[in-house]
Amino acid sequence: MNSKLQHTQQIKTEAKRLGFLSCGISKAEFLEEEAPRLEQWLNQNRHGEMQYMENHFDKRLDPTKLVADSKSVISLLLNYYPSEIQKDKTAPKLSKYAYGTDYHFVIKDKLKQLLHFIKNEIGDVHGRAFVDSAPVLDKAWAAKSGLGWIGKHSNLLTQQVGSFYFIAELIVDLDLEFDHKTTDHCGTCTACIDACPTQAIIEPYVVDGSKCISYFTIELKDQLPNSMKGQFDDWMFGCDVCQDVCPWNKFSKPHNEPLFNPHPELLEMTKKDWDEITEDTFKKVFQKSAVKRTKYAGLTRNIKFLKS
Questions:
Q1: Which of 119, 124, 228, 249 has the fewest other C-beta atoms within 10 Å?
Q2: What is the arithmetic mean of pLDDT over 282-286?
Q3: CATH fit for domain 3-88+95-172, picks 1.20.120, 3.30.950, 3.40.109, 3.10.450
Q4: Tens digits of per-residue pLDDT, 288-307?
Q5: Residue 37 assigned to a binding site
């Protein structure tokens, strides 16, 4: 077995041991196909107030600008699909990815372990770990690495497990065996487009980020626009509608990452509990959660907006 193939197999075996759903590898090179798409999307202001999307345009498309002499992008998926969801069907809803500990911490730790393993087993390898907080086009790299295809709702989809997973990557200066892109299996289905409460999927494969419920409830720091009243489908943080209706997600299986289990009180909270949530309860229930990003003021703003 040649060393390139051996190293690739070692990395994929270790990724599985660390709990990752799957691991795919692609060549670290300029993303030619994505460049015009990203430019057009930004020019049409589909990112709304997310000014950071305009920064580091070149770095978003070229991993060699993030890691000198990088050769490979190792893409990884980590399942977060919960075994249980919120009990009260009338309560404001929270996106499933935010039930447990903030995924940035959980995944970053696993990526550090994987990079440590690579250095120990393979040698003097340099690289960086990325978990959606840097200018990296996660979904594009995962698709290029054969881990799935980008669906009409612009999320990565996989036939075996759907789309309820996080995407992360290691960019390394190690030459590895590359995987191939998979084919698109959305077919004629338009379930996600038809179901989106704010018509944010403006055409197949194009989402207007500035119309997305996740954008309003997480990213937007100003007052929520009156024009959106009654359109949030009771989502107070994030939105899972386009994933919930996707036929491929009938194959989702519950994760086995204890850190993604919700705070014991979270799933039991009623509509009344949410309406009356105090800052102390917020701090207790969301102590290590990604929900802290909105802060108490942001979450209560969203809850009040649903009632108005």
A1: 124
A2: 95
A3: 3.40.109
A4: 999 999 999 999 999 999 98
A5: no
Catalogue the active-site residues. 132
Is residue 24 within 8 A of residue 146, CB to CB? The reply is yes
DSSP per-residue letters across 213-276: HHIIIII--SPPPGGGTT-STTEEE---HHHHT-GGGGG------GGGSPPTTGGG--HHHHHT
* Consecutive H or E run containing 291: none
Average pLDDT over residues 120-149: 91
Summarize pLDDT for 175-214 with one digit per residue, the tens. 999 999 999 999 999 999 999 999 999 999 989 888 999 9
**Distance of alpha carbon 8 from alpha carbon 14, whole angstroms:** 10
The response to whether 196 counts as a known ligand-binding position is yes
One-letter-per-residue 3-state SS of 67-92: CCCCCEEEEEEEECCCCCCCCCCCCC
Cα distance between residue 280 and residue 260, in whole Å:
21
Largest Cα–Cα separation, the chain: 65
Interatomic CA distance for residues 142 and 129, integer angstroms: 14
Give the separation between CA 69 and CA 127, rounded to whole angstroms: 10
Per-residue model confidence as pLDDT tens digits over 45-63: 665 555 555 555 667 778 8
The predicted model scores a pTM of 0.93
- Among positive and negative, which fits the CA dihedral 208, 211, 217, 222? positive
State how far the Cα of 109 lies from the Cα of 216, in Å rounded to an integer. Answer: 29
Annotated binding residue 23: no
Task: Provide the β-strand partners of residue 237.
Answer: 94
Q: Where are the domains of the chain?
A: 3-88+95-172, 191-247+261-307
Q: What is the DSSP letter of 169?
A: E
Cβ burial 79-117 (10 Å sphere, 16+ → b, else e)? bbbbeeebeeeebbbbbbbbbbbbbeebbbebbeebbeb
